[in-house]
Design goal:
One of its GO terms (molecular function) is ATP binding. The protein has 27 helices and 23 strands. The protein is α+β, with helices and mostly antiparallel strands and 714 residues long.
């Protein structure tokens, strides 16, 4: 940072209340006389209104005038910009998480283009605080010394004219080249900045590309100017596309080749054609054509929303002509995301009043939420997830706890960051510690040479999903508690703690409260995990079975190219069954049926798995598997809850259907082999005619590990 050593009284006109002097900074190579000279020039220009009237120059002149007259700043001041505290920077970055999420990849790319030429790339928030920085490693010190670093604060009222300050004032891009800066401290900088406007039309940030001691003239910045404007537009478009996922979005370009790569125009509208949002290019083009920009697509294209949607059906691209001006475009229409439509709650629903803005509600297009209980849970989870409230999901096996957790992650601000899922029951106790916490180089014999980054650290910045948390051993619970309390972890064999920042979602089918009272689950951890608790209903209680069936049939069709329909008889079988394996079992059953029915295209009852087939005239209330598990009657039901009893029954059925081959059963159930072994041990499911599990003892560390590895390889 620039350090002021000395002060000398200047002779130029100074703001009346300031007993100013020119501080000179030898480290920055700036002399006192230079600062004085600059200050005189600024004063004289403002006093004599002698700036050129070119648009940008006029903006600079206005900014100089405000800096000198309104804010009473000293143009001869050579000290650096105000630096905000680390805590304030963190807070600002948190508040601008959405902006950073969309700007980060673009900033990275832009830096890849301009970095080697000596430019750094910065993002300022809407108040002018620099919250993101990319610069060449070997120039960092220099950038920092001149205020081009995160944590610096560039507002016009404090630092006078600068690229960021001008954009904040006028919401227009600008290049502020060397002596265009108001304060002498910044005249060695060349800054080109552009606004980043949110889909709601508000200024949310500023993208800035700057260099120190750029020897080129101002015209040389034209290319940088074009890049910065284009990059800012890319950020805005990404923001808009994310924000309007619940709407129809038209992508338009004059050339069909560029339509997918880089659409010129983006217009988002609802089912009635009301335009909810458009990108900057659309806005500027339409404002040239209309005095007031039309509010419905019908006025733009002479086609109502329904006709535009019809044009799109079955076509990847279609032509569209603007009514006014007659420009022709190639168009693509993105339909609203399904999840958003299914999770919108009816007015009067307890969660409806608190609905977040639509963009936040985009949870996933991979989760069926037609059941009101599921949709209400999802809406609430999305409302709290960005507030660092840990979520606990409860529900029987296969009810979609992991799918739900993933949807919540995808609808959170952390969506671009990793989602890391760990099944605490599937990893042997002896391995789970290193899996979760990682270990340092050479931590123990057999450790990987370079150490291992544990799952918790892999989830840094994103979401960690701990499935079957009730199966975590007490010592590990203690370690996890420490991580959650301190936001730090120490990998095995390391002495250094590492900071971690995660959203935590846990799941269990166990009764954690009961485990706490029995002393098998730590009470303090229980309260840490249960910021919000959602119980996912079993499939037999869900009202959206039909939607789930459609969803899985569509999924199969997409994977295999042929769409199968369900006969009424087959659907009746599906409706009658109790689904102990829940949504997972339904998915696998439909996959099986689609494979058998592939040729004829209609799934009949005979195509369904044995356990599902039931004659229409003898619909059983309880499952009557074609191949009943030999050992079912040997189960000890003591201590198992209804959901667990069903799961036990389901796994036993599936094992019997698959001739007790664990690998195939695991595949059919969509579980890992290690999980099947665990569940067999837990529920006391034994191989027919045997007192132990099939094959070698499955729960030995090596076998379960080998199975887990094999599952990963599968
Ligand atoms: N609402 C849903 N919409 C679409 N697919 C779903 C839904 N719920 C579950 N699934 C699918 O069902 C399968 C099982 O779901 P998932 O693994 O999330 O269940 P789970 O409750 O976590 O199971 P477990 O308790 O055994 O860990 C997955 O393939 C998942 O994608």
């Amino acid at each position: 940072m620039i350090v002021a050593h000395n002060a000398a009284v200047s002779t130029y006109r100074t703001p009346t209340h300031l007993a100013i002097g020119v501080t000179h900074v030898e480290e920055a190579g700036m002399t006192q006389s230079y600062a004085l000279q600059h200050a005189r020039r600024v004063s004289s220009v403002v006093d004599n209104a002698s700036f050129h009237e070119a648009a940008a120059q006029a903006r600079l002149f206005r900014s100089w005038t405000r800096s000198l007259n309104t804010f009473q700043l000293d143009p001869g001041n050579t000290s650096g910009p105000r630096v905000i505290s680390a805590a304030e920077l963190k807070d600002r970055r948190n508040r601008a998480e959405a902006l950073l999420r969309f700007s980060s990849p673009v900033v990275e790319r832009l830096h890849g283009i301009v970095g080697k030429a000596g430019y750094c790339v910065l993002v300022a928030d809407a108040d002018g605080a620099l919250i993101d920085f990319r610069g060449q490693e070997d120039r960092r010190k220099e950038y920092r010394q001149h205020g081009l670093y995160h944590g610096r604060y560039f507002t016009e009222d404090a630092e006078g004219t600068s690229g960021v300050a001008c954009v904040l004032a006028d919401k227009e891009p600008i290049t502020v080249h060397t002596e265009d800066h108001f304060r002498a401290a910044f005249t060695c900088l060349t800054c080109t900045a552009a606004p980043i406007i949110s889909p709601a039309g508000e200024l949310t940030g500023v993208l800035d590309v700057s260099a120190v001691r750029n020897s080129e003239n101002r015209d040389s910045q034209e290319l940088i100017y074009a890049w910065v404007c284009q990059a800012a537009e890319m950020i805005e478009n990404a923001y808009l596309l994310h924000d309007t996922g619940h709407l129809w979005t038209l992508y338009l370009h004059r050339s069909q080749d560029y339509l997918s790569l880089h659409p010129e125009l983006l217009i988002a509208f609802d089912d009635a054609g009301n335009i909810a949002s458009m990108n900057r290019q659309t806005r500027s083009m339409l404002s040239r054509l209309y005095t007031a920009i039309p509010s419905n697509v019908q006025h733009l294209f002479d086609l109502n929303a329904g006709q535009v949607i019809d044009l799109n059906s079955g076509l990847e691209m279609f032509p569209l002509r603007l009514t006014r001006g007659g420009d022709r475009f190639f168009a693509r229409l993105r339909p609203p995301r399904q999840a958003l439509r299914t999770i919108s709650l009816p007015p009067g629903h307890p969660a409806a009043g608190h609905a977040e803005p639509a963009a936040r509600a985009i949870a996933s297009d991979r989760l069926v939420t037609g059941d009101p209980q599921v949709s209400s849970h999802l809406a609430r989870a999305l409302q709290i997830i960005d507030r660092r409230i840990p979520v606990l999901l409860q529900g029987e096996t296969g009810t979609g706890k992991e799918a739900f957790a993933l949807a919540v992650h995808r609808g959170s601000l952390r969506a671009p960051q990793p989602f890391v899922a760990v099944n605490c029951a599937a990893i042997p106790d002896t391995l789970i510690e290193s899996e979760l916490f990682g270990y340092a180089e050479g931590a123990f014999t057999g450790a990987k040479r370079k150490g291992l980054k544990g799952k918790i650290l892999q989830a840094h910045g994103g979401t960690l999903f701990l499935d079957e948390i009730g199966d975590m051993a007490l010592p590990l619970q203690t370690r996890l508690l420490r991580v959650l309390a301190e936001n730090e972890l120490v990998p095995l064999g390391s002495e250094q703690s590492v900071r971690v920042d995660i959203n935590l979602i846990c799941a269990t089918h166990r009764d954690l409260a009961r485990m706490v009272s029995e002393g098998t689950f730590r009470e303090d951890l229980y309260y840490r995990l249960t910021g919000a608790v959602f119980r996912l209903p079993p499939l037999r209680d869900r009202t959206d079975l039909g939607e789930l069936v459609d969803f899985f049939l569509a999924d199969e069709a997409q994977a295999h190219g042929t769409r199968s329909a369900l006969s009424e008889e087959a659907m009746a079988c599906i409706r009658r069954y109790r689904w102990p394996g829940n949504v997972r079992q339904l998915r696998m059953a439909l996959r099986y049926a689609c494979a058998l029915a592939a040729a004829q295209g209609v799934i009949v009852a005979e195509d369904l798995p044995d356990y599902l087939r039931c004659p229409a005239d003898a619909a059983p209330a309880a499952p009557q598997p074609a191949n009943p598990p030999v050992t079912a009657q040997a189960f000890d039901s003591a201590g198992l809850r209804p959901g667990e009893l069903l799961e036990r029954e389901h796994i036993a059925q599936m094992l019997a259907c698959h001739h007790w081959r664990v690998k195939e059963t695991a595949k059919a159930l969509g579980m890992s082999r290690a999980t099947i072994y665990r569940k067999m041990a837990r529920y006391g499911i034994v191989y027919p005619g045997s007192a132990s599990l099939p094959g070698a003892p499955p729960l030995s560390q090596t076998d379960a590990q080998t199975d887990a590895q094999a599952d990963e390889a599968d």
